[in-house]
Design brief:
single chain; 421 residues; alpha+beta; paralog of FGE (formylglycine-generating enzyme); 2 domains; 3-stranded antiparallel beta sheet; 9 helices
Length: 421
């Protein structure tokens, strides 16, 4: 391996970014598990290390043995083909290994991965490089989860703890004007093409037929969503899908997650503390059900994932939204020129689509343990597109398919409207 090996450089940078996200947190913070959907920061740091040890080092570095074989079931997330897993809702009750011990394990695994790369011949490198690449994209996914999970954990605390005081600093806005951008529809190709990295659920490439449609030029803003609330959006059953209405009633929804009424006005809790509601910023932390109800109230609908991807390919969007590297850790709606009439297709908030998360035609999950990465979750979830303010900029692309259950709100999820033409 050359000293300037780009894969080794990328490995060090991404693994270092995870540690930088954890750095503002004390050991107690890294143990928080505020709900079953969220995981402690320490667990994310350990699980991503487990991934490299399990899928890269043990099969491919001669003589490598895990220094901590008992960690295997503790930090296996859902790979049934590898071993059993410690129950997800109970990740927060384990005080050992400590935060410091996880850090030392990370350092040891990092040294071994770099050693493997340094000594690999062309044949071995051809085998391990794709595994390392998927491991790095996997780690970037967990970096976003570190942000959203610690946000949920810290904001359960009545002391209003602040993760970093400078996050969510205001910047210039791209003013939303309510415009719609029209697309003619027709037969179009959907799915990844080319040599760049992609997850297996982004293919195979296939054709779909789209009717003429339109997409909103801008994301729905806090001010627009507040108008829905003030018009009785949360108390009008006919706007809601049945399961959405049941979830809203059971959970007592009356505003997006982290919005609070304070002295007769709405504010929101962020990783930088309580902030006045910014009516021009994209609304976030809404479920699919809330997004769908809002669209119905506006007399419109959510786009399908195929409409979204077709539009993104037609306008060739630049990554003009707010991303993790910007340090805001909150959607800003940053000033940006429109690309083909559309702004912030990439960045700011994950955009709910109307599409169920299902396999593309001819999709087959890989046969090995890594085949459990995406395929087995293709049930009961909705697709989101575009990335968020917590997504690394070089992690997102227009074919990327994120997915969550329709009631989830703790991710940076938002709304772009669509309409028929």
């Amino acid at each position: 391996m050359h000293a300037d090996d780009p894969l080794a450089r990328r490995y060090r940078a991404i693994r270092g970014r995870t540690e930088a996200l954890a750095a503002p947190l004390g050991p107690e913070d890294q143990m928080i598990q505020s709900m079953p959907d969220a995981s402690p920061t320490r667990w994310h740091r350990a699980h991503t290390t487990w991934f490299f040890e399990t899928f890269v080092l043990e099969p491919h570095l001669p003589g490598y043995q895990s220094p901590h074989p008992l960690y295997r079931p503790l930090f296996n997330s859902y790979y049934n083909g590898v071993c059993e897993q410690w129950p997800r809702p109970r990740r927060g009750i384990l005080s050992r290994p400590t935060v410091a011990e996880v850090g030392r394990w990370r350092q040891r695994v990092d040294g071994a991965v770099l050693e493997l790369l340094a000594g690999a011949d062309d044949g071995l490198r051809g085998t391990v490089a794709p595994l390392i690449e998927i491991g790095l994209h996997h780690e970037q996914q967990h970096q976003e989860l570190i942000v959203t999970d610690i946000k949920h954990g810290l904001l359960q605390n009545p002391l209003d703890p602040i993760y970093l005081p400078h996050v969510a600093a205001p910047v210039g806005h791209a003013k939303a004007d309510g415009a719609l951008v029209e697309f003619a529809g027709g037969v179009t190709d959907i799915g990844h093409v080319g040599e760049g990295f992609h997850f297996d659920n982004e293919g195979p490439r296939h054709r779909v037929l789209l009717e003429p449609f339109a997409l909103a030029a801008d994301l729905v803003t806090c001010g627009e969503y507040r108008a829905f609330m003030e018009a009785g959006g949360y108390t009008t059953p006919h706007l809601w899908l049945s399961d959405g209405w049941a979830a809203a009633q059971a959970e007592g929804w009356r505003a997006p997650l982290y919005w609070i009424e304070d002295g007769g006005r709405w504010r929101q809790r962020t990783l930088g503390g309580r902030r006045d509601l910014d009516d021009d910023a994209p609304v976030t932390h809404v479920s699919f059900f809330e997004a769908d109800a809002y669209a119905r109230w506006r007399g419109r609908r959510l786009p399908t994932e195929f409409e979204w991807e077709h539009a993104a390919r037609r306008v060739q969007p630049a990554p003009d939204g707010t991303f993790a590297e910007d340090g805001a850790l909150h959607p800003i709606g940053r000033e940006a020129p429109a690309h083909g009439g559309l702004r912030h297709l990439l960045g700011e908030v994950w955009e709910w689509t109307a599409s169920a998360y299902l396999p593309y035609p001819r999709y087959r999950a890989p046969a090995d343990a890594l085949g459990e990465y995406n395929g087995k979750f293709m049930n009961g979830q909705r697709v989101l597109r575009g990335g968020s303010c917590a997504t690394p900029r070089d992690h997102i692309r227009s074919t990327y398919r994120n997915f969550f259950q329709p009631e989830k709100r703790w991710q940076f999820t938002g709304i772009r409207l669509a309409d028929d033409r």
